[in-house]
Design goal:
The structure holds 2 protein chains of 2 kinds. By secondary structure, chain A is of the alpha/beta class. Chain A is built from 19 helices and 21 strands. In chain A, α2 packs across α19, α4 packs across α13 and α10 crosses α11. Chain A is globular, with a radius of gyration of 25 Å. Chain B is an alpha/beta fold. In chain B, β3 and β4 form a beta hairpin. The chains are: A alpha/beta, B alpha/beta.
């Protein structure tokens, strides 16, 4: 059985490129090195939820049609619309996004990618204050302190810790995996002793002092790589951390400013900030200042709550302050595998990384006005094209309502929630499995996506489908001008 | 002591590994639906409401309400915080306000939780029909 090595995993922003796939009779039968999500994608891509024929809604029901007909209908909807929205792009190749932008310009619509409901606020902040970053390779080889803030990599980027940060074997920093194993064993032992006590002597839980859970483990004083997790709830990532800070919801901004004050050797005159005792913050700041190379990875916990983009502003400012004392970098934990690529391609072609409005004939960018959720909430758009995304399942109900009310075209391999309420459904090949392309990792490193198996008969890649729609739109416009 | 019928909490929505695997299997798959129709609660909060694991609960915010299944969090304590994985069910109750930056509030939303033993969890088809009269 042929084994394809060094395959890039098209799931999350980690873009792990060491996946090994075993192919049998044109199907993937075994996945090596991947995480749970990677395995689910490679083994489950061709399941019963796959759409194999294009569909158009007639009398309230989706009926199968030919690809030509579906493309014509899609082009007609887009050409007739006054203010269409072209949304998605994070789960497909850069090449498809590039054609999508051309299409948006042609139809005078708005092109927005999923970073608007993901790291859009981070982009806004870094446009204001910059971003001291580096590649993940640098973090892997040099970082001795890693902080995950508002992010749960164990669930969202399962191999991030293992490949790029604390548990990776770097050239100058060793993996902290062994320490984690012994810590886990010690904790299990402690749990057993506690439960034995409970069963035999006390019959109830011994009283736990307040903030006991937030006290540092003895491993904080250990040598080597350290991991700090800051989140509103204890996650699996928090369990493996050397230090976990449980911040009150929507109070990250206060915590950042407290950290900034402490890094600048200022006194804080309260006992607690965002529900965390200041003495614990002081310990963490000592760690931050005394490390050689620190990295903060922040997730949607910061961009989706409280001060939103001002959180990121504060985070980047904290890193700037820390850089006066030691070396520190910061990086957003990008969710979908090519959301960074969507931003990059959009920036090349239009000058802006998301929410680009072509309705005046030239690119315009005004987050809050040209961002897709705002357009939908204002009920401005009159049609939508969704590529490799599922906004009906990911947007707040009120925004999704307007999307569904108007003609909706979906290009996606699976029957997702948006496809189920769409008017035109065009199935596509999976980029990275059935189609080649390029994707950008979360640290802006471009990585090629491989084609490992053939797509089902008649199924085209996103790029080709978009090209055909664009061709059709141009034909309709030409015919209109001639008449 | 009488149990309170409602509990004021802060709602956080986000990614779980089950939801991540479910979405790759397909949004219509059973795995996906099962992974996103749950609400992780602190066991102490569940005690306060007098509910057991896998009881249906009604989560309401000023933007809507949805029935999901209460599940005990393994990692505690986080009193007053409930967690629902991203998905069509969670999005019925999240805050669409974007504060003029395009980003709705998916996390940190004031909410109320109450037991809803007699109310069923809607299937994806029923949910879409109810919300959009389509699908």
């Amino acid at each position: 059985m042929p084994v394809v090595k060094a395959v890039t995993c098209p799931v999350c922003g980690c873009l792990c490129d060491d996946i090994e796939l075993t192919i049998e009779n044109g199907k993937i039968v075994k996945v090596k090195n991947g995480c749970a999500m990677c395995e689910a994608k490679f083994l489950g891509y061709c399941c019963e939820h796959r759409v194999l024929r294009p569909m158009i809604r007639k009398n309230g029901e989706l009926v199968k049609v030919s690809l030509k007909k579906a493309i014509e209908r899609a082009a007609q909807i887009l050409a007739e619309a006054n203010y269409p929205v072209l949304y998605g792009w994070s789960n497909t190749s850069c090449e498809a996004t590039s054609v999508g932008i051309e299409l948006a310009e042609e139809v005078g619509g708005v092109i927005d990618n999923t970073s608007v409901v993901c790291h859009g606020p981070s982009i806004l902040s870094l446009q204001e204050v910059g971003l001291p970053g580096c590649t993940l390779g640098q973090v892997r080889h040099r970082a001795d302190l890693v902080i995950y803030w508002g992010s749960n990599p164990w669930s969202s980027h399962p191999r991030h810790i293992e490949r790029y940060t604390t548990f990776s074997e770097g050239r100058f920093e060793k993996s902290a995996w062994r320490g984690y194993i012994s810590k886990t064993r010690a904790l299990i032992g402690l749990k057993k002793i506690k439960s034995a006590f409970r069963r035999t002597l006390l019959k109830k839980e011994p009283p736990v002092p307040e903030y006991f859970e937030k006290k540092p483990y003895p491993s904080m004083q250990k040598e080597g790589r350290k991991l700090i997790v800051i989140d509103v709830r204890r996650t699996r990532s928090a369990d493996i951390a050397d230090y976990f800070i449980q911040v009150e919801p929507n109070k990250d901004y206060e915590l950042f400013q407290a950290f900034r004050a402490l890094v600048r050797d200022q006194e804080i005159e309260v006992d607690k900030v965002a529900g965390v005792p200041v003495e614990y913050l002081e310990e963490v700041v000592d760690e931050m200042v005394s490390c050689n190379f620190g990295a903060i990875f922040f997730g949607l916990g910061l961009t989706m709550s409280g001060a939103k983009w001002r959180n990121i502003d504060a985070a980047i400012s904290l890193v700037r302050d820390l850089n006066m004392r030691t070396k520190f970098v910061i990086m957003p934990m990008r969710g979908h595998y090519n959301v960074t690529g969507a931003n990059v391609v959009s920036t090349w072609q239009t000058g802006y990384s998301y929410a680009v409005d072509f309705s005046l004939g030239y690119p315009r960018y005004n987050p809050g006005e040209t961002t897709v959720v705002d357009i939908l909430l204002r009920k401005d758009s009159d049609a939508a094209l969704v590529v490799a995304s599922d906004p009906v399942s990911n947007f707040p109900k009120k925004a999704a309502e307007h999307l569904v009310e108007n003609p909706l075209i979906v290009i996606d391999p699976h029957m997702n929630v948006t496809s189920q309420v769409a008017d035109v459904v065009i199935p596509s090949a999976f980029a990275g499995i059935e189609a080649e392309g390029t994707a950008y990792r979360m640290d802006h490193v471009p990585i090629p996506l491989k084609k490992v198996v053939e797509p089902p008969p008649g199924i085209l890649p996103d790029e080709e489908i978009l090209r055909r729609i664009l061709h059709e739109v141009r034909k309709i416009k030409k015919a209109k001008e001639a008449s | 002591m009488e149990k309170p019928s409602k509990l004021k909490v802060t709602l956080v929505t986000g990614r779980t590994i089950e939801q991540g695997v479910g979405k790759e299997h397909g949004k219509s798959s059973e795995e996906y639906v099962e992974s996103v129709t749950v609400c992780y609660m602190d066991p102490e909060d569940m005690k306060k409401l007098g509910i057991k694991e896998n009881t249906n609960i009604l989560v309401s915010t000023e933007f809507g309400s949805v029935v999901v299944k209460a599940v005990k969090s393994i990692r505690t304590p986080h009193p007053g915080i409930v967690f629902i994985p991203y998905g069509p069910w969670a999005n019925v109750v999240v805050d669409p306000e974007t504060n003029s930056i395009g980003m709705p509030s998916f996390k940190g939303i004031p909410a109320e939780v109450e037991p809803a033993l007699d109310k069923p969890i809607l299937s994806l088809k029923e949910l879409l029909k109810k919300q959009f009269r389509k699908g």
